[in-house]
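Q: I'm a student working through a structural biology exercise. My instructor gave each of us a protein and asked us to get a predicted structure, then write a short paragraph describing it. Mine is CASP-like protein. I'm not confident about reading structure output yet, so if you can add a plain explanation after the tokens, that would really help. Here is the sequence I was given:
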Amino acid sequence: MNRNGEEEVAEKRRRRRREGVQVCLRGGCLAASATAIAVMLMATEKGVADIYGLPLPLNSSWSFSPSYQYVVGACTVTILYSLLHLCLGIYRLLTGSPITPSRSQAWLCFIFDQLFSYLIMSAGSAGIGVTNLNKTGIKHTPLPDFCKTLSYFCNHVALSLLLVLLSFIFLASSSLFNVLVLSTL
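A: Happy to help. First, here is the predicted structure for CASP-like protein. I'll explain a few features afterward.
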């Protein structure tokens, strides 16, 4: 085999390896977002809090908070986006065609990865604010922190938000990877 043929084979291997990383990042984002939704949807609990000696029944669910609804909505849209890209990437890997065949498609992937990264990060930030309020209570009122009474709910929400942030990391990494692809096209 001549030198030019070896370089061509090596370049093809590098390209396939990069495309495999792209597919893995999409799969990781899909898995993290789907798990975040599943955990959030299981976040419901009933309990009784004691405020000044009076029992106060508490009922908490993710659907009671607009911030948690935003998290579920953002994760749902991110799952659909990641699933579309994952299916397309696997199809192109199996057929041998490049995942990102043109510069304009690489730019589109970069822009949409950025868009969904910011969407999922803003949803996670909104959810973290409400979760922090649930854990610390409201300082200027006699309302206690609800997480002492509703620990199952708070733990599920916290785990879901951690997975949302992991999904953001996968999307941001995919966006960075698209920059690397753009630099080689």
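A: Here are two points you could use in your paragraph. The first strand starts at residue 44 and ends at 51. Residues 111 and 175 are 8 Å apart (CA to CA). It's a good idea to check both against the output above yourself.
Q: Great, thank you!
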